[in-house]
Write a structure and sequence with these properties.
111 residues; alpha+beta; Alpha-Beta Plaits; 4 helices; 4 strands
Length: 111
Amino acid sequence: MSVLYVVRTIITEDKQDDFNRWYNEDHVPHVLAFKGAVSARRFLTVKDPELVAAGKLANERWTHLAAYEFQDVNALGRWFASPDRKEMRADHEQRWGPIDNWKEAFVQIWP
């Protein structure tokens, strides 16, 4: 079964254009070149004051979310252990500072 690996991060507004360009043109293609990576999608957090006031957003802290699909748990494990991932994390920290993010993985159960 496929695995969805979700990463949330915080990028200040003044860095968002450069971050998005780097993420879309460098980071995501690098991940997708990894054997076992299937797809990637990116999202920007909803900052609607009405939703925040109503308590309907789980966490207003994060600015960006990336969702990566891997073929299976083994592919995700290989990704975590790979030199590519270590290099990409170092590149991220060099460009954007210490990584302040939240990560989670989900195994597909349907369909």
